[in-house]
Amino acid sequence: MKSISFQGNISIQDLSKKGINLNLEFKLSDDQYVRNILPLRIQNFEIKRLEWRDFIGKPDDQSPWIAHCYWNNSYEYYFAQDKEQFNYREQSPLRLPRIPLQQINQVNQLNIKTENVRTASVNKIKRLPTPNISNSPQRTISRSNSSSALRKQSPNVPKIKLSVKCKFLEKSWAKQKKDELLLEHETGHYLIGCLSALEFKKKVESSDVIKSNNHQQQIRNIFKQNLKEYIQIEKDYDEETNHFKDVEKQKMWNKKLKEQLLLYQCYFNH
Predict the structure, then answer these.
(1) CB 252 within 8 A of CB 185
(2) What segments bear the compositional bias annotation Polar residues (predicted)?
(3) Which terminal residue of the chain has fewer beta carbons within 10 Å of its beta carbon, N or C?
């Protein structure tokens, strides 16, 4: 059996680097449904368990799709020692629509419009200027050395605090609300968005953005690059599962998605 393309962005090694030594046993093989570990809370990040009643948007009767899941990611950040704040808002790039769920053999005949998108992500940033360290006795040293010296002298060095969200949008719709395998597949799209938000949080918090004079641009670049990667993962997900019709591949994706969620839970909650 061929493996799936998505091997994840967090591993046991990432836990070890944080000093987390856990004997993790992911009991996944007996459970084909990723929804059975939901809802899930990772710090203040909430992942909901989707049901068909959540797909309340008006279906597009002219669309060949059976169902469509929309989500968006947002985030805000601040530095632990800062008080004054201001907000910044930006619309992220949008993705093209995914391939329809039914009539897969007619894909080439479809007139796909670029305004139909799954992901409409918005950055909501609470940002502060770099904390002033001009009174540091090491101020004549280079910036990187000054930051290092300050860390050694004081445990109260400013740290970036990042809050992320992945919201399932109410415009998500379904023509058919009975098929559990289809619901599992649509949940997978939402969870890929959740993993995208969690990986973005991990990347920012493990970066040296605290040293940057332009936090806004650096974090924005990390967000855009990370979103681009997960949009590709969404495309791979549809192609490899044949839009949930390849049952074995769907199970493999379910297992990997669950594994990644549990690893992020351990990473952020310990």
Answers:
(1) no
(2) 131-155
(3) N
Tokens (6 digits) for 148? 């290092």
**Contact in structure between 216 and 86 (CB atoms under 8 Å):** no
Q: Which two tokens stand for residue 63?
A: 């669309």
SS3 annotation, 87-151: EEEEECCCCCCCCCCCCHHHHHHCCCCCCCCCECCEEEEEECCCCCCCCCCCCCCCHHHHHHHHH
C-beta atoms surrounding 121 within 10 Å: 25
User: Can you give the pTM of this predicted structure?
Assistant: 0.75
Q: Look up the domain containing 96 and give its range.
A: 51-102+117-269
The reply to whether 60 falls in a domain is yes
> For the chain, what is the domain count?
1
Q: Tokens 């987390």 label which residue?
A: 20
Which DSSP helix (H) or strand (E) runs through 264?
A: helix 247-269
The tokens for 144 are: 């990187």
Rounded to an integer, what distance in angstroms lies between the CA atom of residue 125 and that of residue 134?
A: 26
Reported as a single tens digit per residue, the pLDDT across 60-81 is: 888 888 999 999 999 998 876 6
The DSSP annotation for 168-195 comes to EPTT-EES----HHHHHHHHHHHHHHHH
